[in-house]
TrEMBL record:
UniProt record similarity statement: Belongs to the VAMP-associated protein (VAP) (TC 9.B.17) family.
Natural source organism: Musa acuminata subsp. malaccensis (Wild banana)
MSP domain location: 6-126
Membrane topology: Single-pass type IV membrane protein
Domain of life: Eukaryota
Alphabetical list of Pfam families matching this protein: Motile_Sperm
GO biological processes: endoplasmic reticulum membrane organization; endoplasmic reticulum-plasma membrane tethering
Single Gene Ontology MF annotation: protein-membrane adaptor activity
Classification via InterPro entries: Ig-like_fold (IPR013783), MSP_dom (IPR000535), PapD-like_sf (IPR008962), VAP (IPR016763)
Designated name of the protein: (wild Malaysian banana) hypothetical protein
SUPFAM superfamilies: PapD-like
Length: 226
């Protein structure tokens, strides 16, 4: 545990199990070992790379506070897996009426008669844990025993499973596509039938209208002559 005049910090080195394209988080525990209220602030040499929550806060006397440091997803791995990033934890005694909105950068400026406690925190990359192998090797008595190396059979099975899933997905999508095409064709046929029916009805109505007009004309002519 790292010890300052006001705070104990655990750990003093953040160890991130590095993985590409993945956010990784580590936690810090801050312990107030005084009878005072403490205001703290966390700084880093690479603020775009890390998200610190909370990065400022107030710790009650003889209390603790957890801080989560999240490293943003990285697209490239450092060639030597070394990290030069650092964090600086500053703390200062404050009054019981201090709120988060009262915490400013000026509070932690070093001035005569003011005690600003500082604890430096290193950053390191560690290898991410690998899942155990389920592969078996041949033992001396001819039986199968667990071994650290993968066999061709196990490798083939691992490759076969994604292929089977992909083929099943392609088959399902093909069926859905064919079903959609059939429904689309059926819909077009129904629309065409409705269009023809409407055309017939319109044609019948026009013919009847002509017949009625002709009959009315004959009747009017007959009445006029009479």
């Amino acid at each position: 545990m790292g010890s300052g005049d006001l705070l104990d910090v655990e750990p003093l080195e953040l160890k991130f199990p590095f993985e590409l394209n993945k956010q990784i988080s580590c936690s810090l525990q801050l312990s107030n070992k005084t009878e005072d209220f403490l205001a703290f602030k966390v700084k880093t040499t690479n603020p775009r790379k890390y998200c610190v929550r909370p990065n400022v806060g107030i710790i009650l006397p003889r209390s603790t506070c957890d801080v989560v440091v999240t490293m943003q997803a990285q697209r490239e791995a450092p060639s030597d897996m070394q990290c030069k990033d650092k964090f600086l934890l500053q703390s200062i005694a404050t009054s019981s009426t201090t709120t988060l909105n009262d915490i400013t950068q000026e509070m932690f400026s070093k001035e005569p008669g003011k005690t600003v406690d500082e604890v430096k925190i290193q950053v390191a990359y560690v290898s991410s844990p690998q899942p155990p192998s389920n592969v078996y090797e041949q033992s001396e008595d001819g039986g199968a025993s667990p071994g650290p190396f993968s066999s061709d059979k196990a490798s083939g099975q691992q490759q076969k499973e994604p292929e089977e899933k992909a083929m099943a997905l392609i088959s399902r999508l093909t069926e859905e596509k064919n079903s959609a095409l059939q429904q689309n064709s059926k819909l077009h046929q129904e629309v065409e039938l409705m269009r023809r029916e409407i055309g017939k009805r319109r044609g019948g109505f026009s013919f009847m209208s002509l017949v009625l007009i002709a009959l009315l004309a004959v009747l009017v002519g007959y009445l006029v002559k009479k």
